[in-house]
Every structure is written in C-alpha cells, then in structure tokens.
Design goal:
The structure is a homodimer of 214-residue chains.
Chain A: H1 9-20, H2 25-34, H3 45-57, E1 61-67, E2 75-80, H4 82-97, H5 105-111, H6 118-148, H7 157-181, H8 188-197, H9 202-213
Antiparallel strand pairs in A: 1-2
Helix pairs in contact in A: 1-2, 1-4, 6-7
The structure holds a DNA duplex (30 and 30 nucleotides).
Chain lengths: 214, 214
DNA sequence: GTACGTATACTCGTGTACGAGTACTTGCCG
DNA sequence: CGGCAAGTACTCGTACACGAGTATACGTAC
C-alpha cells in the first residue's frame, strides 16, 4: 500500500474538526484542548501550522476566506475538500484496523535492562509501579468527575484505554518482579554473576556466538 | 529536571553495545539486529550515524582509532567515555522508573472514532482484534522457538512485554465491543443519531458549549 | 485612564529522523 | 575464471517537529 501523505495524527484531528465547520488554526488548537485531546494527540503550535500547511499543499483542506475578531490579526479559515473528507475516513479507518508497531520507551528500556544490576533494576521497577498506580488513581478520579458532568463515555474511550493499558502494564511489571524475586525468570543467575564479576557467563557468550552465525 | 541531551533510545542502545567493547557504527547495527533489538528500538542507518555523531559531540563516546577488514573502507571504532557510562546508567534508570506519556496511534484513533459510523467502527475494531490475535499467536511461537534455542528469558522480557500488552489491548477492545453492542457504552444512541441525521444531539451541543466556557 | 497580565495568532531557526542512494569488496556459482 | 549478487560501510537531501519567541489586542483592576 502506498505510504500516506501525512504522518502526524494531529493532521487527522485537524481534518476532523474542520469537517464540522470551517475553522482557523488557532481555533482548532483551542477546540482540541477544550475537548482534552492533548492527552492522546500531541498539540504544539509549531506542528499545528506545519500540519495545516501540509494538508493544504496535499489538497485535503483549502482556504475558505478570512475573518477577524475586533482589531486582532486576520485569520484564515480552512474548509475540508472532498479529498480531505475521503482521507479522514480512510486514514482513521486504517488506524482503527491496523495495529502499528510502536516503540515505547519502556520497551526499549526493558531490552537493555541487563545493563543495570538486578537489585537496582527491581527497585526502579517497583518505583515505576508505585508512581504509575498513583497516576492511574488520580486519572480515574478525574475521569469520574468528567463523566459526572455528563460527558458521554463515547468521548472518553481513549482516556479509558490509556488508563486501562497503564493498569495492565503495572500488572505485568508486578508479575515480572515476582518472577525476578523467586528466580523463576531464566537468566537471573547469569545476570547477578555478570554484575558481580564483570564477565558474561560462558553460556551467554556461546549463545551470542551462535546467534551471530545466523 | 534538565532535558536530556539525547532523545532517541537508539542512542541508549549504542552506549550499551559500546560499553561491552569499542565498536564501529555498522557493527553496532549488526549486533543489535542479531540480538533482535530492532523490534523494540528503531534502527535505521541514517539515524544510527546521526546518533553516533551526536553522542560524540556531547562527549558520551569518543573515537578510539580505526581498523579495516581486508580492503574494505576503514572504519572508526568508538569507545565509551566516563560521561557516557554515567549517562547510560542514568538515562536507562530514568526510562525504567518514569512512565513517559506516549501517543500511540490507536489512542489517537479512538479519540476520533466518533467520525466513523458505529457499525463501521465496530467492524473495524473486530478486524483489528482478529489481526492482532494472529500476530500474537505467531509471535508467541517465535518466542517459544527462541527460548527453546536456549536464550534466557532475561533477554526476551521486552518481547514478552510487547506481546502481553498487545493481548491486553485485545481484551480491552473485546470488552469495548461488548459494551458498544449492548448499548451500555454511554453515547451510543447519540452516535447513531449523529450519523443518521448529520446533526449532533442537542445535549452534546450544550455540553460542548459548557466545556468551552471553562 | 493607565498599567499590566493574559489572550490571540503565528513564525522561524534548529535539531533530527531517515530513505534511498553511493562506492567498493567479497564470495559464490556456472 | 568471470560475472553478479550480496555484503560492507556510510552519506545527504528532504521533511518535519517544535520551543521559544514575536506582535498586538483586550480586559481587568486600581
């Protein structure tokens, strides 16, 4: 499949808000923030204007005149083109359907965790769990308050998703810590030995040699 | 806390491999790939050389001479500096401890899912679940094979993490689909009405007006 | 009426990711 | 032994993210 012309999900959000009615960039940012979308989509002014220009260059939006509020600077209103409407639905459908390989920083950290001594690593993982439990609790309260105010859950699914995935991660880490502590995670002995002596266990070196043969 | 000088986790991986012994960039890429780190850390030649140059500029690594293999081009070996060693441990510790706000594309898609008609959205989510179940199953087999070959689980935790988080996401989506289907997800009626009439339900418009007052 | 803080609206220089390319060597197969 | 494909080693031009800044208007408080 051909690559998409746009890559930043902020572009998708811009298309979605313009689809409702023509808008100018600053207003789009305000609207996305008032809907608390900044938690799921990065919203920076620099990126926003770059994205708007790129959407226009690709024919997904077009200038639909200017307006002004009092004696403030004029601002350009953008409206959605037919191509833009199609791109919005097509790209959104693709993102809903196709899992994308992301590279979370925690996953990168896990892949290098052997660099840290075992006890140190476990202490840090415990701190992560505690910090994340606190964040999860406070976000659940905030979410409950927003639902209390009448916002339908349909508009909060991404926040629920984020929260539940963080909770799932913490469950996973607790299980990992348990297996590290009771030694059932294979490799714990070698890990300790490596940090005690500075030498990788012989069987690790042999494994590495084998893998580089592939 | 001051911002880090490096931002790309690939830099962390470079530091970790150079810490074992001095290496040249192309070899670092080969080594990371032989260890299957490309699943958790993006490895592109262009990025790699940029990251190596940046690490050198910040004093985390330094050129430690050149070598050549036959009549191939000479290549520069890099070794870790004391600052680099400290940065490796400090940055890795931070990534293990501190949850980072990421913006997965699926979360962005969820935040705009109302743009799609409900039945269409549900069908797409079902396809995602199916595709991801298949990926999870095939990755579990691959993981089992790698462990069968003797690689300790310590070197596979990031793959286990990735798999288990994908499985957790699928469980979450199945639950969401259930609540969408039985109507217990608040907002389903309004969502259907919106796509049937093209008009947002009155109570949604009133809510939005309130929220923009904040 | 003035001062000042906040809002509105946007820009630009810098840093960086990276894809596709370059140049040459080596090894394998016919 | 020669041709060719793959490997080795790296580069560069382009695209874009974005932080911190700019300029001006407006509203509030004294």
């Amino acid at each position: 499949m051909a690559k998409r012309k746009m890559s930043n999900p902020l572009a998708l959000a811009v298309l979605a808000t313009i689809r409702e009615q023509p808008r100018h960039p600053y207003e789009i940012a305000q609207l996305l923030r008032s809907r608390h979308k900044e938690h799921s989509i990065k919203i920076n002014y620099g990126s926003l204007y770059t994205v708007v220009q790129s959407l226009e260059r690709h024919g997904f939006i077009e200038a639909a005149g200017t307006e002004r509020d009092g004696r403030r600077p004029e601002r350009t209103l953008y409206s959605l083109t037919e191509a833009g409407s199609a791109e919005l639905v097509d790209w959104l459908s693709e993102l809903v359907t196709e899992p994308v390989k992301e590279h979370p920083r925690f996953e990168a950290a896990l892949s290098l965790i052997g660099v840290l001594p075992p006890d140190e690593a476990m202490a840090l993982l415990e701190r992560r769990v505690v910090a994340q439990d606190a964040w999860i609790a406070s976000q659940r309260e905030e979410l409950a308050a927003v639902m209390e105010s009448g916002v339908p859950r349909l508009f909060l699914v991404e926040s629920e998703y984020s929260l539940d995935m963080r909770a799932a991660e913490n469950d996973w880490i607790r299980q990992l810590l348990k297996e590290m502590a009771d030694g059932s995670l294979q490799g714990m002995d070698g890990w300790r030995q490596y940090h005690a002596t500075g030498e990788a266990p012989r069987e690790w070196q042999e494994l590495e040699a084998e893998r580089q043969q592939d």
